[in-house]
Specification:
With 283 residues, the protein is of the alpha/beta class. The protein has a single domain (34-273), classed as Rossmann fold (3-Layer(aba) Sandwich). It has 10 helices and 7 strands. Helix 5 links the parallel strand 4 (119-122) and strand 5 (168-172). It comes from Sphingomonas gilva. Keywords: Oxidoreductase. Residues 1-32 are annotated as: Disordered.
Length: 283
Amino acid sequence: MTDTVEMIHEDALPGHESKLEPKPEWQPRYPGSGRLEGKVALITGADSGIGRAVAALYAREGADIAILYLLEDDDAAETKRIVEAEGRRAVTIKADVGSKKMCERAVAETVEKLGGLDILVNNAGEQHPDEEITDITEEQLQRTFQTNIFGMFYMVQAARPHLKRGAAIVNCTSVTMYQGSKELLDYSSTKGAITAFTRSLSENLIGEGIRVNAVAPGPIWTPLNPCGGASPEKLEHFGEDTPMGRPGQPNEVAPAFLFLACEDSSYMSGQVLHPNGGTIVGG
């Protein structure tokens, strides 16, 4: 995976938010209070879904944003417009987090164009539903792990020299890590790895004053599921099995990412927050 050609997926993922109906709700729900004033954040998968909502909220709170995305140029351009409408700087970076070289280039471009790096949000991910474990191809298994967990290692490795005391890393895991998912065996396995990575990386970096936490969303209305990340049967009743009886919206998840990135959570590291519609999980 060294160039754009090798980045192209054969399926529809991650999908265009611009084509999704109804549109996910990304808009911040309250005025900013300067909690990220002067910070620079790099957000993977920031062109749509949870990533876009996080970018919008971070910008409202004063951060400049590097928008890392895979394929959807139109969605990335819209996220850039949203960030700039909040009066902040934004750069779009087309890159595959499964490529170590691309992660290094993305971080270098962020630092060069925005002047540093204070917050890394590892949000990009992919999933593919399969009823039987024997249906999971070797290529799919490798690709899911390459994107979902290898990509986080690559991003942190590239970012680490630029992260100073007070920096924050926020990873996106999932409720499937805690509940399991019979249709998402490879995906939920990567999310378990992400939680372990978060806890271990926290132990590794806490002495340097860098906090590492994670967010474990439940079913959230983003392009990922309707564009091929969920079976038609599951999509028909998406989110109805949560205690709240509905899927969440990206702007209901973004505040958890803000809390973990700012000084409000200064005494938290190695932890996971659970915006999941009321599902009770351990850890």
